[in-house]
Amino acid sequence: MLILVTNDDGIHSPGIVALAQSLSTVGDVVVVAPDRERSAIGHSLTLHAPLRADEIRPGFFAISGTPTDCVNLGIHGLLSVKPDLVVSGINRGGNMGDDLTYSGTVAAAMEATLMGVPAFAISLESPTFRLEDFTVAAQFAAGLAQTVHSRGLPLDTFLNVNVPVGKLAAVQLTRQGKRRYSDKVEKKIDPRGRAYYWIGVGELGFEDVPGTDFHAVSNGSVSITPLHLDLTNFRSFDELSTWDFNLQQAE
Ligand code: MN
Asked: According to the model, what pLDDT value does residue 201 have?
C-alpha cells in the first residue's frame, strides 16, 4: 500500500512525524506537506504562483503551498503511481462540527476524494500536544489505514477522525456537531496608532449532543464522521420550491 501523507500544520510538526512513522509500519509512506503552518487555510488552491517542492530528506517533500496543493502535486507530479490512500494529519487540535470548512487538514482529504483516492483526516484534541500525545492517535491511524485499504470506502466518502488524549473509551461513528462561536473580536492599537484586530480569540464552546463528534471526543472516544462533498441541503427543497423567484428578463 502506498500512502501519501500530508497536513496543514506543516512538515515539521510533531503530528505528521508521528503519523508518517506509524503508517510506515503498514505501507510505503511519502510525505508531501506544506513547508510551514497552513492551519485554517481551508480548501485553498494556489493558481497564480509557482509551487516549489523541496525534498528535505528521502520521501519528505516540503511544498511552498497549501494542503490541497500538496495532494494535487503529490498525486499528479511527485508520485510515479497513484497512492492507495491519502492520510492528512495528525492535526494539532480537533476538527469538528462547523469548523470543518476552515480546516486545511480536512480539505486535503476532500481533495484526495475528488481525485478518486480513498482518504481520511485525523486530528488530536489535547491540552498539551506533546510528541508522546500523538502516539495513540498515530497507532489508531495505522489500523484504520489497513481497514480502509482492505474494505474500501463508500462512494464519494472520506472519514474525518478526531482522537482525544488518554486511554480511549471506544470508537464511535458520529455526525457533525454544532459549534458555539465566540463573538469576540479583539481590537488593539499598533505602535503607529492604527487599529488592528484579532479574530477567533474568544472561548469556543459546542453543543453537547449525543451522536456528535464533539460529544464522542469529550467523552474519551475516537470520533469518525463520514463526510462527502455534496453540501446540498435536500431538506430545504420542499420549502424553497414554494418560493416565487421572480425571473424578470428584458423581452
Ligand atoms: Mn492545523
From this structure: 79
